[in-house]
Amino acid sequence: MKTKKIFSLFKPLKFRNSLSNRLLSYILLCSSALAVIITLIQLMWDFQQDVGKIEASIDQIESSFLQPMAASLWNLDEEQIQIQIEGIMNLSDMQYVLIHEVLGNTEVPLIEQGTLKEKFDISRKFDLTYQGEVVGTLFVAASLEKVYDRLIEKSLLILVSQTIKTMVVSICILFIIYYMVIRHVNKIALYTRNIKLSTHNKDLILDGRNHHISSSSDELDELVYLLNKMQKRIVAELTDKEIAIEELQQERDFSATIINSSSTVICCLDNNFKISTINPAAVILTGYSQEELNQKNWLDIFVLDDRKEELLSKLTQNEAIHSIEIDMHDQMGEINTLLWTFSAFYEGMNIKYLIGFGHDITPQKQIEFEIKQLNDQLEEKVNIRTAALTESNQQITHTLEQLKRTQQTLVESEKMASLGGLVAGVAHEINTPIGISVTAASFLQEEIDTLKNKLTSNSLSRTYVEELIVRLTESGRLLNGNLKRAADLISSFKQVAVDQSSEACYSFKLAENVDQVVTSLKHKLKQSRCQVFIECPEDLSIYSFPGSFVQIYSNLILNSLIHGFEDWEGKREIYIELKLEGDTLHLNYRDTGKGIPDEIADRIFDPFVTSKRGSGGSGLGTHIVYNIVNQLFKGDIQYILGEQGCHFEIRIPYKANMDS
C-alpha cells in the first residue's frame, strides 16, 4: 500500500509535453553533461596518475638498475643480466626490455624480453656506463593498454553510478519542484482554463496554502491572490459594461420609441440638406412614404417656394433656426404650418448632420384665425349664447328631473324583475316533483282498480297481495318525497317573495336566508352548470331587512350567471362567506368567472353601467346592491381588483336584536 501511494505521487508527471517532462529532460541533460564532464576529469586525473607511476618506475630503473646492469654487462654475466631484466619486467606496465652491447662504435643486441612493437606508448633509452666507459645501452618500453582498460572499466563504473545518482537526484528534485510548484501551476492552469467570468465564481485556493497574503506567502500565493483579484475586477468591469450596454440599449430603444411615436416631425439632414432619416410623423403629415422622403431635399418638401432662398441662406451660413414658422404643401395641396427648430450634430469640429424638429401648429393657427373671427362678433355671440345657455339650462334641469324619475322607476322595475325571474325558476323546479307525484298517483289508481277487479272476480291471491303491498309502499314513498320537495320549494319561494316585496325588519338567520335564495335560483344555477358554496355559521342571526339581503344575493348571483359565466370554459363556482368580526358583519362574495372588464371596473356601482349594453342588460344590479348597503344598511361595499373572477367585500353594522 505504501508503494502504491508513493507511485501515485508521480502519476501527474506522466502527462505528455508537460512542464514536468521538460524539467525532467533539462535536469537529466544538465546532470548527464555534468556527470560526463566530471567523469572525463576523473579519468584524465587517473590517467595522469597511472602515467606518472609508469614514469616513476622508469626513473626507478635509472636509479636502481643501470649501475648493476653495467657491471654485469662488463663482466659478461648474462645470468645476472637476465635476472635484472626480469626485475625490470616485473615493474608496473613494462612491455619490452632490450640490452645492446657496445663494441667499438657498434651496438649489438644482446638480450631482449617482452613484446616488440613498431611504436610504444612510453619508452626510454639509457647508456650503461662502467668506470666512465659506455659498455652498452638499455631500452625499456611501457604499454598503456592496461591503463586504458582500467580507465574504461572505471569510466563505466563512474558513468553507471553517476547515471543512477543523477536519475535519483533528478527525480527527487522534480518531485520537490512538482510538489512545491508544478501542481500549483497545474491547478492555476486548470482554474484559468475552466474559468467563467461570472459573480458566482469561487476564488482559487492552492492546496495547503493560505487564502490571504501573509508574511509566510511566496510568489505563488501572490500570483493566486492577483489572479483572484484580476478575475473579480474583470467580472466587475464586464458586469458594469453589460449594465451600461443594457442601459444604452434601453435608452436607444426608448429614444427610438419616442421618435417613432412622436407627433413632431424629426428629420436628419446631410451637408446638402437632403433627408437622411425621418420619423413616421412626416409620413402622416405629408402623405409621402418614408422611401419617397429619404434623399429628398428638405426645402422641396417642407418649404414653399417664396421662402426657399431665405432658408437656404440661413442653413448654408449655419445661422440659428429656432421656433420659426414655415408653411408647406402636403400631397393633397393643403397648407400646413410647422414650427421648426434645428440643432447641429458635430463630428469633431465639423457639422455632420442637422437635426430638425418640426411641430405641426396648423390646428393652433386655425384656432387663432377662428378666435380672431370670433372676436369681431363677440358681443353679438355673447348675447345669443347667453340666451341659448339659459334655455339649455332650463332644458337640462327638466331633463335631469325626468332622468331621476326614470332611474327610480327602472330601479323598482329591476327589483320586481328579479322576483319574476325567481317565479320562473321556482316554477321549473316545482314542475319535476309535481310531475313525478302525478305519475305515482296515477299508478296507485291503476293498482286500486286492479285490486277491485280481483276482489269482484274472487281471484285475489296471497302472492298478489304481497307484491301489491311492495308496489304501493314504493309508490307512496315516491309520492311523499316529491310532494315534500315541492312543498319546500314553495315555502322557500314564498319566504323570498315576501322578503323581496316588503321592507319588514326582524331577526332572522343568515344561513337560512341565503339558502332560500340559492334554492329559488336552483333552476338558473343548473342551466349555467354552476355550483354555489356557502360558508356561514348556522346560529348567526341579525336584526335587519331579510328582503334586502335577498336582493343583494340574487343580484350578485344573477350577475355572475349572466356576465361572468357566459362563454366561459373555466370553473363555474360561486363562494359566499358570512362571518362576524366584532360589531361588523363581513359578507364576501366571489366567483371564478371572467370578471369585470377593466374599462368599467372603476364605475361598477354607477347606474346603467353594464357590459351587456344592447343585449338586455340594464346596468342597475350592482347599483341596487350599492344603494341597499350604503343607504339602507349604512355599510360599505368594495370591488376587489386584481383577482381571478369577480370579488365583492361587504361590511354591514351588526345588530343582534331590536334593542341594539
Give me the number of helical elements: 18
Strand content: 15-25%
> Unreliable runs, pLDDT <50, ≥5 residues?
1-7, 12-16, 495-502
Tell me, briefly, the overall form.
Answer: elongated
| Oligomeric nature of the chains | single chain
How helix-rich are the residues, as a percent range?
55-70%
Q: What's the arrangement of strands in the largest beta sheet? A: 6-5-9-8-7
What's the average pLDDT?
78
Rounded to an integer in angstroms, the radius of gyration calculated over CA atoms is: 63 Å
Number of DSSP E strands = 16
What structural class is derived from the secondary structure elements? alpha+beta
Q: What kind of sheet is the major sheet?
A: 5 strands, antiparallel
Can you walk through the features of this model?
The protein is an alpha+beta fold and 660 residues long. The protein has 18 helices and 16 strands. It has helices at 2-8, 19-64, 66-74, 78-89, 145-193, 219-261, 280-286, 290-293, 298-302, 308-316, 362-376, 378-456, 462-501, 510-520, 522-527, 546-564, 598-601, 621-632; strands at residues 94-103, 106-114, 122-130, 133-142, 265-269, 275-278, 324-329, 335-347, 350-360, 506-509, 531-535, 541-544, 573-581, 584-591, 636-639, 647-653. The strands form 4 sheets. It has a 5-stranded antiparallel sheet. A 5-stranded mixed sheet has the order 11-13-14-16-15, covered by helices on one side. A 4-stranded antiparallel sheet has the order 2-1-4-3. Helix 3 (66-74) packs antiparallel against helix 4 (78-89) and helix 13 (462-501) packs across helix 16. The protein is elongated and about 190 Å long.
